Every structure is written in structure tokens, then in C-alpha cells.
Amino acid sequence: MSGHADGEVTIVACPDGPLLVRGPVAIVDTEGEPIEQRRRTIALCRCGVSTIKPYCDGTHKLTGFRTEPPAPGEE
Fold first, then answer.
1. Distance from C-alpha of 58 to C-alpha of 45, rounded to nearest angstrom
2. Torsional class of 67: left (φ above 0), alpha (ψ -120 to 50), beta (otherwise)
3. Eight-state DSSP code of residue 75
4. Quick one: how far is CA 34 from the chain centroid?
């Protein structure tokens, strides 16, 4: 991957969106069983509404999910 050393993992918290994970990571369920990864960069759900958890499906846009509280007057 461009810009990443072999084995390096980066996680980017997208404003009002998912966590983008780049690099070699293992995702497992609550039983410790591996969850299939189909891409090298994955988007993990933070809103809790995705239909394909733990992955993001974009539902956060429909629900108005916010990662930061609204500024005074924006509520």
C-alpha cells in the first residue's frame, strides 16, 4: 500500500462517519471467530445502525450520526 510500511496499521476516524482501517488486521466476532475481510482498507461502523456490522454501509448519513456534539444553536 502506498505510504504504509509493511505491517503498519493506520486507523482514521472520519468525521460523522466510520473508522477507516488500513493495513493487516484481524477482525473477529465475540466468539473469536474470524470475520471475512474483502478489502485491504475497511470501514468499521461507529453509528451502530449498519446492516453489515462490523462494517459500515453508509447508514450513518441517513440517521444524521454525529461524532461530535452539535455546537450551541445547531441543535
1. 9
2. alpha
3. -
4. 17
Cell of 16: 460523522
d(CA 18, CA 56): 6
Distance of CA 44 to the CA centre of its chain: 2
Task: Using the predicted structure, report yes or no on whether residue 75 has a pLDDT greater than 70.
Answer: no
Whole-angstrom distance, CA of residue 37 vs CA of residue 45: 14
pLDDT digit string (tens) for 7-63? Answer: 899 999 999 999 999 999 999 999 999 998 888 899 999 999 999 999 999 999 999
Q: How many CA atoms lie within 13 A of 18 on its CB side?
A: 18
pLDDT at 72 over 50: yes
Q: What residues form DSSP beta bridges with 22?
A: 10, 41
Of 21, 25, 18, 26, residue with least CA distance to 53: 18
